[in-house]
Amino acid sequence: MLSQKMIDKINEQIKNELYSGHLYLSMAAYCSSQDLDGFANFFVVQEQEERYHAMKFYHYLVEQGADVKIYGLDQPKQDFKSVEEVFQLAYEHEQKVTGLINDLMELAVQDKDYATQSFLNWYIDEQVEEEASMQSILKKLQMVGVKGHGLLMLDSQLGARSFTPPSKEE
Ligand code: FEO
What is the number of the ligand 1 atom nearest to the C-alpha of 17? Predict the structure, then answer.
């Protein structure tokens, strides 16, 4: 059985994950406006991942017999100076999300809530990947610069990304 504090915090985290998707869709739109379709595709796929993260929390609450609450989302940032700025902000955003997942884990430990600790392990691992993916693209952008052949090659690589839902065991 989940504590009420845990239920409230997971409901907040559903909102946070949906907001992440909202922010990444805004970043996708900026990339499209710059004719960087591969970068735009990267963020469209990222939005699908964030929805998956939100729905995984949603189903966990339902499974535990707790009420799901759907909250309104803030307006995401819309004006960006460059794709480099976009990835800098995306990387910082993922670091913030890692902090939120760690807070949830801390509460699960305090509550001696072993089921939620086990459930949250998936997110702990996922956040390592989420941060690494943003940081790796940011570093490449810093190497190639914001114009030219290198940028177009990176754009073409990111255009190949597609959303694959993790298998049930994960
Ligand atoms: Fe849901 Fe990108 O963390």
Answer: 1
Residue 130 CA to ligand 1 centre (angstroms): 6
Q: How many angstroms does the Cα of residue 26 sit away from the middle of ligand 1?
A: 15
pTM assigned to the model: 0.94
Contact yes or no for 21/50 (Cβ under 8 A): yes
pLDDT 10s digits, 58-93: 999 999 999 999 999 999 999 999 999 999 999 999
Ligand 1, residues at Cβ distance < 6 Å: 17, 20, 50, 53, 94, 97, 130
pLDDT tens per residue, range 87-130: 999 999 999 999 999 999 999 999 999 999 999 999 999 999 99
Structure tokens at 140: 């490449």
The gap between the terminal CA atoms of the chain, to the nearest Å, is 22
3-state secondary structure of 65: coil
- Structural domain total, the chain: 1
Q: Domain containing 104: what range?
A: 4-70+78-158
